Amino acid sequence: MTTPIYYVNGQPHLGHAYTTLACDVLARFKRLDGHEVKFLTGTDEHGQKVEQSARAADETPLAFADRVSDVFRTLLGTFDFTTDDFIRTTEPRHREAVQSLWLKVLAKGDIYLGAYEGWYSIRDECFYGEDELVDDEQSGTRVAPTGAPVEWVAEESYFFRLSKYTQPLIDYITENPDFIRPAGRRNEVLAFMRDGLRDLSISRTTFAWGVPVPADPADATAAAHEGHVMYVWFDALTNYLSAVGYPDEGSAEFGRFWPASVHIVGKDILRFHAIYWPAFLMSAGLPLPQRLFAHGWWTSDGQKMSKSIGNVVEPTGLVERYGCDQVRYFMINEVPFGSDGDFSHAKMADCINAKLSNDLGNLAYRTLSFAYKHCDGAIPEPGELTAADDEMLAAARGLLPTLRGLVDDMLLHRTTQQLNAVVQQANRYIDTQAPWALRKSDPARMGTVLWVLMETLRHVGILQQPITPTIATCLLDQLAVAETSEARGFGALCAEHALVGGTPLPEPQIVVPRYERPEEEVAAEAAKAEAAKAAAAQAAAEAEAAQAAANALSDEELAALEQRIREQGDAVRVAKMALKEGSGDEDAVSGAVSTLIELKGQLPAGHEMLQPPKKKKKKAKAK
Asked: Are 488 and 476 in contact (CB under 8 A)?
């Protein structure tokens, strides 16, 4: 399973952390479930943009790439990611792989020399057709659909016959509906290919920082390749093969791990992975990855993250403020995986305190501290189980098959929801069973209730390891679960590995402390909300006033309207009299009244015709 390799032109942001976190949760889950896993990430270090940035930093491209790649590597430890390999496109193993893939595609007849003229975005490292460009109101220019500036490029280039693979790609994606997920992303890709694909420029000559195009072994005299470096996406995408030993297709790693089980990417690079990459593989006669999953973007307080706005969320700072596991939990729990998500410090604090501190933390501490105090510091011996006990244990034991299905369907956000649902059920169970009340009346029953709670927490702790590994480890330590892969793997989620009465317990500790937000941040947020409310009210008042001004009647128009209302009032009275005498009908009355109401609705507010009629005083009868 793979993340994309991250471009070294900028610093790691929340999106990088999110992609790698999703892959890490999958990798941890599958390892605990007994699978052999290779979790790959890395950095993409070639291209015109890197060359320009290195020049601006007064560094060589390689020195620049070394420095920024180390920053991305540091993020792995910050977030407790368990990658098995970190690949760099400047490594010799990658250069060998990508040149071998080029030659294989060349031998297939799918690469030819031509000339390219068209729009190119250096920031996106992507070619765009005229019909894909959009107007940028701010600059008054045409830009890429991502908002990146484009420039006209004209140069000699090698082309890949992408057009040849239009129908094979459509057929494959249609016949394999799980290949691209979520379904909406699959539909986007199919829509993009509906009118056919253009051949793709896959080499550049206007810069030198890249993998050189290899000579054609079938033509020893050919020199056309000289001065060409590979288009960054042909280079970058091949990393997935480089890391499993390609071009040695007979190697143990290639046999075990290719095709990849899943590529996880952001939706902004969907096209490269869903169209270009499968086409390259088809040309080379290599198996396609089993699944491609494109997740959404993160915004901040409802706005797109931007340095100019000042709302960019720096991932390392988040961990320093809230804690690694807390940030991991929030990012998985907060957003339906595949959709866009919004970050705010208020949401982060609420999630930590509600789900981790209150629900899980309080349940663990009051269960373990009560058992430690009243069961001689050991796991209690369970007695005969009641229906309530069986129901609680069934919910805990049902977690593993449920989570397996959710993980296989890439519904990562629902894994935290299912775990929390069992924790909440356990909180209801402890309140209903009230072991504190049983301490004197029925100590044996108290022990059974505590054992059921602790066994439930064991299941939750083992299954929450992929998401919050440190919190889960702390919980399992306090339950005296042995620190072995056998005791803490998913194979231990059975009756044979249930907690054993009499096992000594360590002194309980709070598993997840409550997070208190800085007072000044809360006050600033409240002031901002109040200002927004006031601004909205003012805007509404101004809009109402503007509408009133637009609808204002001149004296002549008002007099004419008043006359029409008086005449329509007479018409209503005539219709009602006719109905009373039997010569009229209810529809005529209803129509006349509706017209009168509509006319009165055109009067300015406060007009005397809108006031209810004064009741006439009855004359006193003479005695």
From this structure: yes
